[in-house]
Design brief:
The complex is a heterodimer of chains A (147) and B (134).
Chain A lengths: L7 H24 L6 E2 L3 H9 L2 E3 H4 L7 E3 H11 L2 H15 L5 E7 L2 E5 L8 E8 L5 E8 L1
Antiparallel strand pairs in A: 2-3, 4-5, 4-7, 6-7
Chain B lengths: L10 H26 L18 E3 L2 E3 L3 H11 L3 E7 L10 E5 L5 E11 L5 E11 L1
Antiparallel strand pairs in B: 1-2, 3-4, 3-6, 5-6
The chains are: A alpha+beta (147), B alpha+beta (134).
Chain lengths: 147, 134
């Protein structure tokens, strides 16, 4: 290809650079447009609301004991005894709240034992760790991650 | 680079002008692109304190927040709001649903949990589903 007029090559290069920059800007504009229709929950708000709850023991366990206890105490007991009725309830609440698979991870630690509920996928959008005093001694570590 | 009194420009001048134009255009387009990116700050947020008057009496979630929803919608210019309540695990009966205005435009949604007091000293987590039409 023989260029008839070499002076025009600069203008062509200029135009090509301009087109490339515009294309990158448009791509960046639409690449960042995510799912904006749903507001995510904050892990600290969810954790505090759950830990401030109180239940009758008979609400969550198969027993006639109607003593009112905090969810903290019930979760600590569940970690120690391995009772699944209380952790099943927490899973029900978090499943109803998030409605997506792999959208939360909850670690409960008490007296050297750990229970993990849910599976997280990717980087958490929100996370919160708190220690809650258990009535019958020790502290329960409540570690919640929302994805 | 030699200046030319006749007004002609040589290759170095053209190269400089290309670089200046490219930098200025990039900055301009980047500013426009950044302003155009939608963020979560633009989404309408529901005032979660509106559900503070909801209580649980005789194992049933009760309360009426319709008037507060109407005020909230009017104040923020929303066309409509729907609020649904769910009791996970059916610990208590929860059949509340509030609907004000119209839901015929863009809708945003959120779900949140609140620990609702009962009349017998408990606090039960209740999930609220909110849809706002803007």
């Amino acid at each position: 290809m023989y260029l008839k007029n070499k002076k025009g090559i600069t203008a062509i290069v200029d135009a090509m650079i301009f087109i490339i920059i515009i294309s990158l800007a448009v791509a960046a504009l639409y690449a960042n447009t995510g799912d904006e229709e749903f507001i995510m929950n904050d892990a600290s708000d969810v954790s505090n609301q759950l830990l401030s709850s109180d239940f009758r023991i008979s609400d969550l366990m198969n027993t006639n004991d109607s003593s009112v206890v905090s969810l903290t105490d019930l979760l600590a007991a569940a970690v120690v005894t391995g009772d699944s009725s209380i952790t099943d309830y927490i899973v029900t609440v978090l499943d109803a709240l998030t409605e997506r698979p792999d959208s939360y991870l909850l670690n409960l630690k008490y007296s050297g034992k750990v229970i993990s509920l849910g599976t997280g996928d990717g980087n958490p959008v929100s996370g919160y760790i708190t220690n809650s005093t258990v009535t019958f001694g020790g502290t329960l570590t409540f570690e919640l991650y929302l994805y | 680079m030699r200046l030319n009194k006749k007004g002609d420009i040589g290759f170095p001048e053209v190269l400089m002008s290309v670089m200046v134009v490219t930098i200025v255009l990039s900055a301009y387009v980047a500013i426009i692109a950044y302003d155009g990116i939608p963020s979560n700050d633009d989404l309408p947020e529901f005032d979660r304190d509106l559900v503070d008057i909801i209580v649980i009496e005789n194992e049933v979630v009760t309360g009426n927040i319709s008037e507060k929803l109407i005020e909230f919608a009017d104040k923020n210019g929303y066309r409509g709001i729907i609020v649904n309540c769910i009791s996970p695990g059916n610990i208590v009966d929860c059949d509340l649903r509030f609907s004000v205005g119209f839901m015929d435009n863009e809708i945003t949604g959120e779900k949140f949990v609140r620990s609702i007091p009962t009349d017998d000293g408990r606090s039960i987590p209740i999930i609220f589903e909110v849809a706002i039409c803007i």
